[in-house]
Amino acid sequence: MIPQNYIDMLGAKSVIRTLSEWATARGQEIGYDNVFDYSLGNPSVPCPEKFTQTMIRLLQTEQPVTLHGYSPSLTIPSVRQAVADSLNRRFGMQYGMEHIFMTTGAAGALAHALRCVCAPGQEVLVPAPFFPEYKPYIEGAGLVMRTIPPRPADFQIDLDAMDAAINENTAAVLINTPNNPSGAVYTAETMQALADLLTAASARIGRHIFLISDEPYREILFGGQSIVYPAKFYADTLTCYSFSKSLSLPGERIGYVAANPACQQAELIVPVCGQISRGTGHNCPASIIQLAVAQCLDETSDLSVYERNMELIYAELKRLGFEMVKPDGTFYIFPRSLEPDAVAFCQKATQYDLVLVPGDSFGCPGHFRMAYCIDTEKVQRSFAALERFVREEYGR
Questions:
Q1: Residue 123: phi, psi to the nearest 5?
Q2: Would 75 disulfide with which of 34, 102, 388, 394, CB 3.0-4.6 Å?
């Protein structure tokens, strides 16, 4: 018999995926160019030419068994060393190969990190707004997700609420910066305050509280700002990364867990990740993709289109009377809806072939998300539909 919890999940499908499927079906009716689909965070720019050429060269010069065989259970040593060297060079860290574990994207990294430092029944605190799939990731590991209310004025972490939520059953805090869906980047001041809070709380409960930092949008920053790297602030940090956004490789499913060398039992994190792989059937990402990304660690796709799209959308939404925090990164914007019920607001928008995602599943009702990783030309064409929607439905 199929377990009931999975049957129950069928009735709680991802709102994002459901809307994306609606957009695809609508596109078959009227042409997808006429559907203004802001639902799915699927990168819209090609991968760097260097990645393509690296793949070609590997296929032409390396032995097929090397490229297509199983990698070691702890993933390819040379790749792990290359990732460690890159992080050390960029962020002044002290990672070694022994602190890096390659995974199937950020989702795979989170699956390992959660199981590595949390025991079934323990709690993971998650500041809102958050990526909705955190809930099945956390609950699928046998853990309890507790949401920290959002701070809509700037979408930094409500540290007082965080401190009040920590108890003897708290195992970890899961953060996402730059943040999906808000586009906010946690400041150095926020990260230092969070580190101080977790240090004091760990002493209070007599056990290390881990910080799990989900960073797939780390390279998508606006205004020339520098990256704030959470592991620089707090020793007990596991960094979860994906190359899906930086290299526009979402279909390749490649990322990593990086254990801060100063964290508790740092020497055991990667070996334990290998054992978690045995229990989850993970068993290593593709060897050829591990080898290819290792040679492109300091590359990115041309990410400038996302900032250009953000500036256009932000200006148009402001003109139409929306309230929002201007994004500092990612390819998302998270305005307040024009009525308290964001689900109803987004449903009305579909009548104008606008596909917007309500903020309820992100832990932030009354807001909606737009993923603007689409062609700039289509962004600009969507403004006529957006203006008509706002005028006809809300008299603005």
A1: -105, 145
A2: 102
